[in-house]
Amino acid sequence: MSGGLLVAGTTSDAGKSVLTAGICRWLHRRGVKVAPFKAQNMSNNSAVVVGADGRGGEIGRAQAMQAAACGVAPDLRFNPVLLKPGSDRSSQVVLLGQAVDTIAAGNYHALRPRLAEAAFAALAELREAYDVVVCEGAGSPAEINLRAGDYVNMGLARHADLPTIVVGDIDRGGVFASMFGTVALLDPADQALVAGFVINKFRGDLGLLRPGLDMLRQVTGRPTYGVLPWHLDLWLDAEDSLAYGRVLGRPAAPRGTDWLDVAVVRLPRISNATDVEALATEPGVRVRLTVEPAELAAADLVVLPGSKSTVADLAWLRETGLADAVLAHAAAGRPLLGICGGFQMLGRAIHDPVESREGSVPGLNLLPIEVTFDPRKTVRQSAGVAVADPGVPVRGYEIHHGYVSSADPALAPLLTYADGAGEGAVLGAVCGTHWHGAFESDAFRRRFLTEVARLAGRSGFRVAPDTAFAAARERSLDLLGDMVEEHLDTDALWRLIESGPPGKLPFVPPGAPPTATG
Hints:
Blueprint: E1 3-9, H1 16-29, E2 34-37, E3 40-42, E4 46-50, E5 56-60, H2 61-70, E6 81-85, E7 90-95, E8 98-104, H3 108-129, E9 132-136, H4 154-160, E10 164-169, H5 175-184, H6 188-191, E11 194-202, H7 206-220, E12 224-229, E13 260-265, E14 270-271, H8 277-280, E15 285-290, H9 293-298, E16 301-304, E17 306-307, H10 310-320, H11 322-331, E18 336-339, H12 341-345, E19 349-352, E20 359-362, E21 369-386, E22 389-407, E23 415-417, E24 422-423, E25 425-427, E26 430-433, H13 442-456, H14 469-487, H15 490-499
Parallel strand pairs: 1-9, 1-10, 2-9, 3-6, 10-11, 11-12, 13-15, 13-16, 16-18, 18-26, 19-21
Antiparallel strand pairs: 4-5, 6-7, 7-8, 14-17, 19-20, 21-22, 21-23, 23-24, 25-26
């Protein structure tokens, strides 16, 4: 078979990524050869994939997570177009893994035909290679101002004749209006592809919800395929839900007597914030995204994460008083970690003729390094060991224009590559690295947190010897598969995947109100 399905959403963060992953895991467990697909993703959370030519390329982290749900290696075709916003008005365009341009919102339309052609070709190849391709939309299919050039929502569904389900987040409220409005705003040809709905993040008595589901079917002519419950343990590679003050994961109680509090600065152009999710899998480690200087003062470890616009986000740190809080934290001898762009901010100076074109700007001067931006982008998977303990292996990946162009020769690296070259820097309680994903290496994460606890004076903190990040991710993917099997009408979903769109369904226009049932 060569089946397909499009998972669209009423909004961003409605649950498209996790529902797509759940359907992929359900199909994988049935023995179906399945692949994920997102024609275009707008995100600064990316993963490095080695292409057929041996070069490293980028796709959205959500698609890498979905590939894991399918039991397959990530593929550049799973996310052929990735837009990485550098500001409110411009984005770097990554096409089939490689950065090809930087565009402003106003001239995106000129490049769009080329991007659509590449996306359609990638989907066609995947449908030849896999039994089923589960596609994820972007934003909402009812963004009518963008419909003419759309190739990721109903434009994709029309091109590939994909049955479409629409997922909505009931926890936000207004889910019935959102679902009705989504269908109502589509033209009849698009409506004909929308088969039904899935409600996400429901809490409460399902019996109280059923009359609404019946009325939704009356006014749209479409069923609801199921209601997914709200679940604390779903934390997979969040993209749209990196909210201020959000605690990542569901921290388990500490193995010792002390907790470790980790404050991650939520930069305006934050990238790959998922780096710290591995820390959040450890018992007794509470990881919070914040923009409050007071929360940095109270933290045991402060993290400056990656940034798509390092110089602009460094200026924002200074404007908000967060830079002063970071400096005070470091002056007190408390642990501070910079990752990629955050690492670059810790140096004496940043020379940037490429990304911001601001030239040379002073850094936070916490590490004796200088960083220069090069037009050539480093995109690769990396492997090596921890300098402090050469028996501890570390794997990660790199995505950056900046590189260390000058450093105090006495400065110790944090890591070494397999060839022995140093990477990153350590000076007292301050350290940094360009490697994303390093904390997914279990032994390195444990050693790092043990040192953090020592420097922070948390003598009662103990790392768990048995926490495995990869196993925790598999459990979450299995949980998604379980939820799909338990709460959705999988027989109906299978018929959609196998048989295609249901054909033209009735739609009751506004002015014909439903009647309550049940």
